[in-house]
Here is the input.
Amino acid sequence: MFGLEPGLAPGSASFLESLDSLGFPGLVPAMHRLLMHAQPPGDFGLRAAFLEECGRLQATLFQVEELGGIALHTFGVTHARSLTRRRDRVNYIMRKSVVGEDLCTDMALDFLAKWPRLIDAQAAKPATLKTFYHRHNVRRPQLIQKRLDRVRSARSLTRDSAVIEVSVRIVRLLVAELRVLVEHIIAFEIAIAQDFAQHPEKAFFSELPGAGPTLAPRLLAAFGTLREQYPEAASMQRYFGVAPVTEKSGARAWIHWRWNAPTFTRQTLVEWAGQTIVFCPWAKAYYERQRSKGSTHHATLRALAFKWLRVLWRCWQKREPYKEELFLRQLEKRRSPIAARARQLAVTTAN
Here is the structure.
């Protein structure tokens, strides 16, 4: 798929030329400069770190090919972020929605395209608006009347024609962008579901607590299939960005979160960790304990993701499914401070 051959040495001229042909032209000159100036003995550590990153990049590209397209499809979620930004801008324009909560539906976009100005919607006859709603399968009289009242009672923030005309053009631009983005995001979602359904490791990720049709493929794309890339749990925790960093200078030391990490991968792990609080007893017990100690919500989720990676790494390496009861017994055997609460939650859930 990518045109890289497994025999290429990381940092070699052939490897860099392959990267250039794959669409990384800006990366290649920087790599050349680094290789030219990073000469031993002074910068030997820098050169070694660079070669290690080249190897990780090469392995990642091979892994994307092995995943049968799921990783590539998952990158399409970045377009979903673009969709969210544009939808929020439209939502700002329509503070009191007259087309429902989701402004990416055909009804919402058709409404904005037909009546981009407030005065246009207010000038329309009630029968015209009712017909519009009926055509978009909105038939409850109470709901239609509530939306008509919102249109009639709305007040324009300005009567400046210059401001209004510019805003109308912005609305039309956003509507056109949203139509295209929605269409392609739906195509991405269909492709992700199809590829994930055919993947041999689908069961491992789909059976994880809280991993539904959205997060399970994202977790599969994050983990991949190259188990030798993460020889220990700590290497995976560092690369995924959930392991904190400790810096020292003299007698002073401070801890901060890892800045140099793949943002979307870390976001996937943290989002999934948040979902496990609902479906996993020990995760909920751990969350409650950390919050009672004063930890913030997001810091607790990152810490929970750190814990989860240690558990999943072992299951993933052994190709064994995660078993909730087995892990609860391990917590009780080690006399974990959350073991009793986790067991209590498990019994309550079972009943």
Remarks:
- The longest helix spans residues 161-198.
- The chain has three domains: 1-66, 77-195, 215-350.
- The chain has a mean pLDDT of 77.
